[in-house]
Amino acid sequence: MKMAVKIALILSILALVGAQGFAGGGSERGDQRLVVLGSHINPGAPENRAMNWMKEEFEKRGNAFRAEVYESSTLGNEQELFEQTQRVQAHVTIGGSAIQDRYARRYTVTTIPFLLEDDKVLGLVFSGKIGDAMRKAYEEYNVVIAGYSLRGNRQLTSNRPVRVPADLVGMKIRLPENRVWMDVWSALGALPTPVASAEIFNALQTGVVEAQENPISSNHQRASWEVQKYTNMTNHVYDYFIWQVPKNWTEALPADQRKIFDGVVQDGIQRSTDITLEMESEFRADMIRRGMVYIDDVNFKALQTAAMPTIERVLSQELEPWVKEELQRILASKR
């Protein structure tokens, strides 16, 4: 979308939201409140489908809300969506690892590539001391973590197969702007290159990068088979989106409206996870039919071993001292 068009659209949305302000007052349609839901990913993705479901639910559950959904970075990229949530210009948004790394870096363990081998650890982290610290860090920016939805494991796509660290040497891999991720992939011999989510397909098509990593659902939405030959099942991150809502706006809602808002958001987050889990095998089968080759015999242990010195440095030097101990306690409880 051209910048002038995007700015005009955002300004029109601000005009609609304006009457609500930070106090959470009504919109221009009587007592109805406008709920803006924003996503930086493509239509049809589980998260976007969940947002469209939320829109319908907001308008079904009483007459307190009306909702509008903006997809495909219409309102901006992940960072811009976070800032719009912070300023109460959007009310339900999603953010990935780059946002978490920026605003809760000292507590971020679940997104370190090749660290975890069990997605159940995510629930234990979010429901415990580390999750509490993350929520507090976000709230300092007027953003509440409403919950997280699973996206599936992140997998590497490329035009040459990857099974062991040697296969990564010199490979230009698109990554989000996450310094820890760049450090880990660099340790494996790759050449990380930050590219915005919306530009991944073009970057692969034009040769700016030769590989990228994302969950299967995301790779399917981007028609990655058109620009990539292999999906290498690296399972390097059990991925999720954090769902974000503005703190002062939600807290200012009357109790009955707050109950509706929270209920719709929580149900929508669970719906996003359910859609992802239901559709991942379908996405994989469809991609194979379209020519994608899946490499299932990736040596995770070899990749983890090669990355471990960098992972240990991150755990020891870049996180709060107690975070590593808490993670070790959680991992020990799973054994």
CATH class: Alpha Beta
Named at the architecture level, the CATH assignment is 3-Layer(aba) Sandwich
CATH topology name, in short, is D-Maltodextrin-Binding Protein, domain 2
Q: How many structurally independent domains?
A: 1
Gross geometry: globular
Give the end-to-end Cα distance, rounded to a whole number of Å: 49 Å
Tally of DSSP helical segments: 13
Average pLDDT = 91
Low-confidence spans? 18-28
Number of strands: 9
Classification by helices and strands: alpha/beta
What labels describe this entry?
335 residues; alpha/beta; D-Maltodextrin-Binding Protein, domain 2; 9-stranded mixed beta sheet; 47% helix; globular
Account of the 3D structure:
This protein has 335 residues and is of the alpha/beta class. The chain has a single domain (3-334), classed as 3-Layer(aba) Sandwich (D-Maltodextrin-Binding Protein, domain 2). It is built from 13 helices and 9 strands. The chain has helices at residues 3-17, 46-60, 78-86, 97-103, 120-126, 129-139, 179-187, 200-206, 216-221, 247-251, 255-289, 300-318, 321-334, and strands spanning 33-38, 65-70, 92-95, 143-158, 172-175, 191-194, 211-215, 230-246, 293-295. Strands 1, 2, 3, 4, 5, 6, 7, 8 and 9 form a 9-stranded mixed sheet that branches. The termini are far apart.
Summarize the structure.
By secondary structure, the chain is an alpha/beta fold.
Give the arrangement of secondary structure elements:
Elements: H1 3-17, E1 33-38, H2 46-60, E2 65-70, H3 78-86, E3 92-95, H4 97-103, H5 120-126, H6 129-139, E4 143-158, E5 172-175, H7 179-187, E6 191-194, H8 200-206, E7 211-215, H9 216-221, E8 230-246, H10 247-251, H11 255-289, E9 293-295, H12 300-318, H13 321-334
Parallel strand pairs: 1-2, 1-3, 5-6, 5-7, 8-9
Antiparallel strand pairs: 3-8, 4-7, 4-8
Helix pairs in contact: 2-11, 7-12
